[in-house]
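Please check our next protein.
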Amino acid sequence: MKNRIGLEDSFDLGVRKLKILKKNVHFYYVNGLCDTSPIVQIVKELVGINNSEKLSLQLQSIVENRIVHQSVEQVKTMDEVVDQVLSGLIVVLVEGEGIGLVVDVRSYPGRQPQEPDTEKVVRGSRDGFVENIIVNTALTRRRIRDERLRFEIMKVGERSKTDIALGYIKDVANPDLIKVIKKELEAIEIDGLAMADKTVEEFLVKQGYNPFPLVRYTERADVAATHLLEGHVLIYVDTSPSVIITPTTYFHHLQHAEEYRQSPGVGTLVRWIRFLGVAASLILLPLWYLFVQNPDLLPEALSFIGPNDKSNIPVLLQIFMADIGIEFLRLAAIHTPTPLSTAMGLIAAVLIGQIAIDVGLFVPEVILYVALAAIGTYATPSYELSMANKIGRLFLLITTAAFHVPGFVIGMTAWILLLAGIRSLNTPYLWPFLPFAPKACMQILVRRAVPGSTIRPSIVHARNRQRQPAKNG
């Protein structure tokens, strides 16, 4: 152990040496990753062997039976010993024996489950995933107490040996999908997963420079459980509070738990407003700029649209400056301590916004439409999709500025063709519109009541399509 893990070099690596029935028994552990209470109890039990047992050749069996813990496993190689110790378990080695005992006394440092900042709801559970994979799987088990729920764990990373768990319901999830994901995870060759789930995603879906998200992240345990029941396969990565949901389409990134915490009518209204906000974040600015370039396209009733004041700076440049300025503010808000965020907001609204208009840097209408597009960006439930739509908006602005009406049409067509050509884990990205599935489209447009949702989505190719048991008789 001195040679393998630097037992005396690293202060947080420790060994407890006991003498039991005239044989050495060693405990190896990592300070900070182990719970002290069960270790103390185990040591008391083992030391008590000297008072209650006679010299025996079966010391290994005696020690194993005296370990008062529910999780005890045997290991036979030094590689296993090293991996388990560095994962936060303790290893008990008995002199002269070829088998070690591993006891799971892990107690990873971390925060308690709390509501995620990015997926808040007015009503609903306030417990969210944390950076501890054991806690995350337990939060899911609490919601799905099915004997067919599976969590297959593996270690990825030559140096980090990060725990990754594959979660699915055995008689619901598509076995081919499970096999493909497991194969991709096992094929990952990297020294470590310091960025956890994001690194796993890049190996899994091989996204490249495509800005649109190919998997969905969630930090809500109820959202994860809902997708498991639909037939999705989830990937839990230790040290990450986000769970990866596969497979997903474009419209999975437009869903939010708030829709399902309200009545179907209210949920449908919230969904339509969200769709309107996402559409505004993408096409509002390019469409307005198209009308600025071609005022004759506007009917007389809408002739007021377009800047009334002349400016020395081209409107397109104003749009880009304002859009990038809002991005500056977003980045500043991320890096600004909470007590200073209010002051930063006042600076942005009063000093930058109003004074920039007064000095003639921007015309007021540019600020208005850029702000509406930004609000639509923030209304998008998926942070990854909102950033992809921002890139799409800038692309549409450039094509519209270059080619006017044909540029806008060509840009929108290219955007739709790009989305139509994406496949995430062999799943069409624009399903259920391409390929067209009428019933699934209605479920996208209208939030159906839970008693009426008896069929699982066909896109996951679930083994059991029925969500509710058939009635007897």
The mean pLDDT is 88. The chain has 15 helices and twelve strands.
